[in-house]
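Q: Two folds, back to back.
A: First:
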Amino acid sequence: EVTYIDSNNNEKTIKLNKIEKNLTRALTSFGLLNHTKNEEDMHKMLNKNKNNDIHGLIMDQLTDVENTLVALEGFIAAATAEGATVEPLRALCKTVREKEHIADVSLRTMIEGLDGPFLPSTRSDLISIATSCDKIANKCEDVAKLMVYQRFFFPADCNASILEIVDITKKQFELLKSAVSQLFGKFNTLLKNHAILDDIRGLESQVDSVEETVYQQIFDMESLALSQKLQAVSFLDIICDISDVIENIADQIQIMLINRVV
């Protein structure tokens, strides 16, 4: 079955048999069938429900996740400062956790708003992207609270690299927000040119490069016991996982785009 939005903005469903499906693919491959309408229908589905304003709800959720990431940046900056101690970090950790809670609430609000005339697959894709973004906020909270609970600080020689990783990750998320917004306002443009998704992946590769350097740096430190080295890289892993999640969401967006082309 194929569900679409017709010229009068009414949702219609038709059934295609196997021969019709194969014919559609064949005509498309030879350039004899223009699927611009398919793309326009997708754009309509993402913009039709003005009452729920799902675009605004999703962007609000992404902003709340971004605020959690910014709060983590402040926490890491304080934790890597010279002479840092645990007590001042407790208040900053509380801020991260509060921001994460706000992001949780906005996620639920967004999901509840998905009651408009969306195709099941579109609704599922949007929920998947939103819940994946929520994992970013969760990881931010995990880093802050575990560093406080364990009274952990990175070796001083690693601090600059840790700050660099967080900075690159923030830039990644800014690009991700823009890509998600384009799903609503510039869907056809994003479908034809997804360079922004490649840029997100490029930044993730930069994080990987810095991460590998820090790994080597930590395990080369003779002053640290093996248990201390393992603790340090476990926190490094969680921080770098945020970048991996952002890259995975970029992949989800590209898959969503591809699935809308017959």
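A: Second:
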Amino acid sequence: VGTVRFRDARADFYKMAAPTSDNSLRGAGSMGDLGTYTLGGSYLNQHGVNPAEKLNRFNLNGNVAIHLTKWITAEASVQRIRSNNPYQDDSFSGIDHTLINLPPTWNITNGFMPDGTPVFLSGGTQPQPSLQWQIANEFNKELTNRWIASQQLKFNIGAGLHLNNNAGLDTYVSEYGRFINQRPWLASQGINAGSTNQRKSTRTTINDDLTLSLDSRALGESQFRVSGLIGGNLYSQDFAQLTGTGTTMVIPDYFNLGNF
């Protein structure tokens, strides 16, 4: 009869996470009496024990400070962030639940037949496809893009009196998608198979502060000291979100969309 297989199915499916790649670069320099600058960047490439999950994040930033005159200084900063994160449902709703309940005699190392169709974990009219098919066709993903920019102007009026202006812009775009691809063996029976839920969120924030400040100083010949600050703020934020869903995908290349 041969040796009876007795192995935890999770040991065959989950893989040792690949080493995390975290690269960063930073540089700074001087422009003499004119000012200084800095540049930096980093890239993170992280994988999970589930072969379908990963996190990629890119960050780039720069700063420059300039002495325009002996009375006026300016500083500008910009930052670019991009994050991509595909992932699976976890716990009871995901493949973890299936793996825990598989008998140790079940070999899941091969998830596809030679013709590309999935190996099935169960029978009946609605069989469950292999875990390899599920992670390739049923997943979530989120892509985030963000720009942050700021500028500071400082005017030294004299005698410890300063006029400052700080302006900033922040743009944020998040694209989320949940994909449950069509199961052709169900569509051939006229059974609903497949759905998608997608959402795009955008946010733009503008902020501007204008202040007039007076440095601390003695009040005449007394021991009392005075200082002052007066200013105003302008703030604006715009937010938008678009959501679309698709369901009851029965015929290939045909989609019955709802709430879009």
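Q: And?
A: The radius of gyration is 29 Å.
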